[in-house]
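Field guide to reading this record: the first block holds the primary sequence, the second block holds the structure written as discrete tokens, and the final block holds curator observations. Each block starts with its own label. This record concerns AbiEi antitoxin N-terminal domain-containing protein, catalogued under organism Georgenia muralis.

BLOCK 1 — SEQUENCE
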Amino acid sequence: MNADVDAIDRLARRQDAVLSRRQLIDLGATPDWMSRRVTSGRWLRLHPGVYLVHTGAAPWRSRARAALLYAGNGAALSHTSAAFHHQLLPEPGRTVHVSVPSTRRVRHQPGLRIHHRDDPPPSWGRLRATSPISTVLDLVAETTSRPDDVVALVCAAAQRNVDLAALRRAARARGRLRHRALIEELVPLVDTGIESPLEFRYHALAGRHGLPQAVLQVREILDGLWLRADCRYVGLGLRVELDGRLAHPHGRTDTDVWRDNAVVVATREITLRYRWRHVALAPCAVARQVALALVSLGWAGRPRPCSPTCAIDGQQSLVPKSPSGRA
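BLOCK 2 — STRUCTURE
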């Protein structure tokens, strides 16, 4: 029996140009025929018994498909690989992660990490992957996960329309989960409009220092421009914009300038703008500056210091101090 090249090509188009040795044999390929394809450079062997059936580098989907074919029955992309597949992470990383039932013995390969699991989570799809909720919890459970990573994942899940109430229920049901309390805190906050770790940090510092509650993610048209304010203190004439990008580290972008000017012209509102280093490294100074602006605009409340070394001194008037206080 000769190899059915047309059938191989059709299957390759459905499987990201990756086929298993078993599939090829079923289509008439012999071991010698496959070996000649590899040694001639026409094919690439990605894992034992798994081939990329064209020349050139393997894109991520092909590497992911190869990992699933190699791992066999019950295998599903998981952890960072599933997160990238579900658009919860911007990059897939160098290693493909696959979960398999613990009853199966699958060996690690270069660029492939196998997770043996007693109770595999739900998975589905043409490129089989663990569910978005299970994927988030798998990454949260990693020993290297940080609070900011958890916030970013939950925010990304919300933006991909993951049911956050179901995520919270799943977190409660999973045993020995790191950051369970943080997920409990996050879910209602994300529902109100928090979309990033930076916004979560600002919300936390505002609460610690007794600042009034802002309205989040306000969208409106001003001077012909669609604008969105991260935080708006309605009735007080103050907006706070938060920018977590590392680009333009020493000044505002042209878009920022046009936006801030449009706000002033249309509403007479002040815009305060902070980057990651301000909120993360000098949260008390940020709180003090926001409080100064609010008081100058008529806020009748008073901020409170979060610690004895806070930049906000509860015994003194709100006179600007050097931004050196730390929470």
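BLOCK 3 — OBSERVATIONS
The CA atoms of residues 209 and 306 lie 6 Å apart.
Residues 72-192 form one domain.
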